Amino acid sequence: NLRMADEAPPRPANVEEDNDGRNLVERERRQGDVISPTRAVLTLSKSMFNAGCFSLPYAWKLGGLWMSFIMSFVICGFNWYGNHILVKSSQHLARKSERSALDYGHFAKKVCDYSDIRFLRNNSKAIMYVVNVTILVYQLGMCAVAILFISDNLAFLLPDVSTDRHSEMIAMASIVLVFIIATNMFTEMRVISFFALISSVFFILGAVVIMQFCVRQPSHHAELPFVTDFTGVVTMIGMAMYAFEGQTMILPVENKLETPEDFLAPFGVLPTTMVVCGAFMTAIGFYGYTAFGDAVMPTITTNVPSNGLYSTVSVFLMIQALLGHSIALYVVFDMFFNGFRRKFTNRFPNCSKFVVDKGFRLFWVLVTYLMAVLIPQLEIMIPLIGVTSGTLCALIYPPIFEMITFWTDWKSMLSHRERMIKISINCFVICIGTFCIVAGVYTNAVAIIGAFTKPA
Hints:
This protein is mainly α. The chain has helices spanning 2-7, 37-48, 56-63, 65-96, 104-113, 118-122, 124-157, 165-183, 189-215, 230-243, 250-255, 261-264, 269-292, 312-347, 353-374, 378-413, 416-453, and strands at 15-17, 23-26. The longest helix is centred in the C-terminal third of the chain and has 38 residues, at 416-453. It starts with a helix and ends with a helix.
């Protein structure tokens, strides 16, 4: 017996045990370009921490202090639920189709392929294209806004190169373009997660400088309204939904996680990320609004002095936006590159793989650059795309896809009452998502009309 024990093979590292030492379940471990749960949290958090967060104090002014405080947690909860059921459905279909992972578009296709509804099966590719276009427009818009953000801050720091603001912005964007191209040439999630780490450090530094200034101001909470009016609350909801910009990064990060089970675990990647992001966004909204009251500006950074220590805030936020561009555009590369490479190399078999890879990346970077310099008033038009596409990806698509994915399983595994509860919750989330889209369209349409009709 001792001899047999000595010759027994070592227990695999990916097998969990109970207190008696018996094997419970073998944990799936992906190989290759994978990241740890810690790096996954950093990458996902960075995708949600962007310039939109600094508009939250102004959003709270529109909605009222305590109504905005409550709605901040509600919005975070709905985003968490949508992301949770999205990953749960994706993992289920990946196992069912014997795939290691699915991006958002192929996930939508698999939902339809395995559906009992003939119309969905016959139009699965069309539905995949609709989802892909939704995500593509959203990501390109976010990247173009990042270029605008960096260009505006760079123009503030450097001497004037032109009396015309648009010409100056183009000059700054052209300078920035060189660095953006360089950061987008990397292909592995390991590198992208490292960029996310560095970007998060600079974002946190900038946010800490802003936050400590807000906290040190006299609080105006006693004189601020509990709630404003319906229009103000609707506007606040639309702006808060736009601040959660990381919906499209959920599946790319999950697909590269070394242990997929850790994504949805009680203290896993998604819950941790949502708690951190929800707490930060609530804090910056609350302290920013109570510090400046009705004097709070559309972006809290303009309420902070621009001299001394506070002058570094622009530099910190520029660096995080620069690295954030490559993180956002990674979604586009992840979704479209394999299909593009297959079709391109079939037509041009002698073309170098290196040229195909880098050329594809360069093309999409240049698209975001041209969007930034050619589309007038882009900075106020993109939130309209963000709040619609982002809400579709977070609150509309996931509950619809979950109901289609698990419809047959629910019939056999759940009682009628349990099934109706799940369906009711998902329908309620879809209604909330529809309301957020309507609110966002209304808010941004008013801003766009006002901007284009304003006298020069």
